[in-house]
Amino acid sequence: MSTNQGVAYVKPGVVEVRGIEYPKLALGNRKCDHGVILKIVSTNICGSDQHMVRGRTTAPEGLILGHEITGLVIEAGNDVEFIRVGDLVSVPFNIACGRCRNCKVGQTGICLSVNPARPGAAYGYVDMGGWVGGQAEYVMVPYADFNLLKFPDRDQAMEKIRDLTLLSDIFPTGFHGAVTAGVGPGSIVYVAGAGPVGLACAASCQLLGAALVIVGDMIPERLAQARSFGCETIDLREKTPLADAIEAIVGVPEVDCAVDCVGFEAKGHGADADQEQPATVLNAVMAITRAGGAIGIPGLYVTGDPGAREEAAKIGSLSIRIGLGWAKSHSLHTGQCPVMRYHRQLMNAILYDRIQIAKAVNVQVITLKDSVKGYADFDQGAAKKFVIDPHGMIAN
Ligand SMILES: NC(=O)c1ccc[n+]([C@@H]2O[C@H](COP(=O)([O-])OP(=O)(O)OC[C@H]3O[C@@H](n4cnc5c(N)ncnc54)[C@H](O)[C@@H]3O)[C@@H](O)[C@H]2O)c1
Ligand SMILES: [Zn+2]
Ligand SMILES: [Zn+2]
Q: Among 312, 243, 256, 245, which residue's Cα sits nearest to residue 284?
């Protein structure tokens, strides 16, 4: 009998590494002959996990975390045709069937077949279909032919694994935020948030040809990380209104495009920089985005927040000044990133050295045992993207 270990959510503020079941090609009674078992090579801690670990969702005790997975195929179900044992693959965090109307048009973040409760599923995530997470040694991936991206050369991929591990979520997510905000050659962009998603978005804006990328946050180390690859930054602990801070950099108090890489746990500005204000980023980006501009919103907003300060926010109702966005004809784009829309192109951008994404987000590789500390450090705002290496396969 093979064994397995994974990172479990215990209660707010507490995760632990514990023995868990070795994966089967099934989810409860649902057979997954279209699935594979992966030996996990790398699996990243995400800001999305933190929402659960901080007790800001309805995640149950014992949920095995982890939706950012890269691994080696060690077993393939009978219905898998093209993926083979021995393939090194990136797993999009969205689980998608490839057969429903949404998958057929590339909307894999809202697949209709993989979560009885609502459209869209993910590994190791509350309300996302009950699929077991991959911050573990082994995991099962369903609909393997459809979901998996195989790296063309295993040895070359292992050399760039710190970059390629980011294809399961934050690189495509940051890129999607930029694309949906209309970023292109010469754009002037404001990115709210200098966490890993914000930094990946800022680097993606550069890849898309932006002329100027301004990143706002209230954690100085994260802002320094953004400056390390050529972004301008705004420290939101300072009292200067955002529009004035933008004007000081751009010459006018507005930008072409904006991306919310923060989500519902957003904090205020100036004196309120340590106070939660869930709608603040949405309102701020509408205020500073030019009329006719677009706003990408990869930052997560939830339908249930037990930790919300206001009653309405407990069900995800926020006070958004939609009249301003309407008056400025803004386009707003929300939702999970459909990773599959971008991962192959972004893999090639990495393999052909068009981007240094691991460097931009400051990847740090840790053991499975150290993931508990990784969660704590990340929660304290470390300017790092923690990548768990459960089998010690990543060279130092
Ligand atoms: N849409 C998707 O598919 C998708 C995928 C991955 C992550 N996410 C979401 O993206 C968000 C960011 O993820 P992350 O891993 O970078 O998380 P993170 O928590 O590390 O980063 C968020 C950053 O926002 C900063 N911040 C707080 N209030 C702010 C404000 N008013 N203005 C600017 N910055 C502010 C914080 O200081 C922090 O550095 C999370 O909500 C996560 O759930 C969405
Ligand atoms: Zn993630
Ligand atoms: Zn589907």
A: 243
* pLDDT tens digits along 73-120: 999 999 999 999 999 999 999 999 999 999 999 999 999 999 999 999
Q: Distance of CA 204 to CAs 75, 81, 151, 155, 242, Å?
A: 34, 33, 21, 26, 23
Q: Which ligand is closest in space to the CA of residue 129? A: 3
State whether CATH 3.40.50.720 applies to domain 174-333: yes
Ligand 2 mean position to 46 CA, how many Å?
Answer: 4
Domain ranges of the chain: 4-169+338-388, 174-333
Thinking of the domain 4-169+338-388, which architecture would CATH place it in? Alpha-Beta Complex (3.90)
The owner of tokens 């990243």 is 44
Query: What pLDDT score was predicted for residue 396?
Result: 76
346: CA distance to ligand 3 center in Å?
A: 23
- Strand 88-91 versus strand 69-76 pairing type: antiparallel
Please report which ligand is nearest the Cα atom of 263: 1
Beta bridge partners of 212: 188
Cα-Cα-Cα-Cα torsion 136, 119, 163, 332, nearest 10 degrees, comes to -140
296 Cα to the center of ligand 1, angstroms:
13
Using the predicted structure, report yes or no on whether residue 323 has a pLDDT greater than 90: yes
**pTM beyond 0.90, yes or no:** yes
- β-pair partners for 260: 192
Residues with CB under 6 A from ligand 1: 46-48, 50-51, 169-170, 173, 192-198, 216-219, 222, 236, 261-263, 266-267, 280-281, 298-300, 336-337, 381
At position 356, the amino acid (one-letter code) is Q
Tokens of 212: 């100027």
